Amino acid sequence: MPYHEFDCSTCIPERKKHAVVKGPGETLADALPAGYLNTVPGSISERGCAYCGAKHVIGTPMKDVIHISHGPVGCTYDTWQTKRYISDNDNFQLKYTFATDMKEKHVIFGAEKLLKQNILEAFKAFPDIKRMSLYQTCASALIGDDINAIAQEVMDELPDVDIFVCNSPGFRGPSQSGGHHTICIAWFNDKVGTVEPEITSDYVINYVGEYNIQGDQEVMQDYFKRMGIQVLSTFTGNGSYDDLRAMHRAHLNVLECARSSEYLCNELRVKYGIPRLDIDGFGFEPLADSLRKVGLFFGIQDRAEEIIQAETARWKPELDWYKERLKGKKVCLWPGGSKLWHWARVIQDEMGVEVVSVYTKFGHQGDMEKGISRAGEGALAIDDPNELESLEAMYKLKPDCIFTGKRPGEFAKKIRVPYLNAHAYHNGPWKGFEGWVRFARDIYNAIYSPIHQLAMLDISNDEIPTDKGFVTRRILSDANLSDEIRNADNLRQYTGKFDIIPDLRNKTAEDFPYLRQDKLEKAI
Ligand code: SF4
Question: What's the predicted TM-score (pTM) here?
Answer without folding.
Answer: 0.93
